[in-house]
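At this stage, I put together one protein's amino acid sequence and its backbone structure tokens, which the following lines show:
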Amino acid sequence: MSVRKLHTEFNTFYYFTFTCFRWISLFEITKFYDYIYRCFDILKSKNLFTCGFVIMPNHLHSLVFTKNEEDFINYIIGETKRFMAYEIVKRLKREGRKDLLKIMHDSVDTNEAKKNKLHNVFQPSGDIKEIFTEKFIRQKLNYMHRNPVSGKWNLVDDYLDYIHSSARFYDLGEEGIYKVMHYEEAIKLSSK
């Protein structure tokens, strides 16, 4: 499902994911985790509460609850990605990564360049999905949390040891680097 589908509901859960350009590990290369946590805080200030996440070296999965009645989630996430892209480019320049900047610059198509786009930082589509049931919430959390040990990743031996994730919060009751809102609290918030 592309982000081009407009999601207009509020007082509901959404799962979203997006990926760095060509699956390049830009989050890891730029040590970008801190900035993503700051973005979670900005989302919270816009009544979009992070209820679960995993930040992989080149992509992000998140479960959010939105109380925002003014802006659609597509707009909020799109703006967040735009500022993330600026910061990634800034960090790549600071690190002298001309190789990556050139690849990302040369891949911008003519129409996008006319709109002053200078670099492709993220894949052109993402995924935003409304979550309707608690079973689906748990399924998405399980998928996210096990991502660091699935497939080719093997970032840690035990998914609970991956620090850029809300897994320990849900499975062990321990707060991690970023304090998320438990989805059950968000359900209570939805009735207010």
Remarks:
- The radius of gyration is 17 Å.
- The chain has one domain: 12-190.
- Helices lie at 26-29, 33-45, 73-94, 98-106, 110-114, 134-146, 167-172, 183-190.
